[in-house]
């Protein structure tokens, strides 16, 4: 589940970089700023989703352990 989100954001980042490289326009500060903002937002979202997945995993493990006893 964690890898699904990681690969999704990785694909999103790669598609943005390919789109930026194939635009044929000269670079500008606004474009770089926007790309950096999108990258940092994607990183924050990926970390948040990973933390939620870890929480669910630990809760599931705790439930399984309590059932074993």
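^ structure tokens above, recovered residues below v
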């Amino acid at each position: 589940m964690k890898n699904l989100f990681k690969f999704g954001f990785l694909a999103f980042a790669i598609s943005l970089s390919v789109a930026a490289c194939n635009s044929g326009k000269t670079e500008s500060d606004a474009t770089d700023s926007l790309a950096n903002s999108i990258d940092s937002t994607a990183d924050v979202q990926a970390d948040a989703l990973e933390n939620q997945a870890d929480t669910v995993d630990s809760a599931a493990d705790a439930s399984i352990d309590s059932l074993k006893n």
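The chain has a mean pLDDT of 77.
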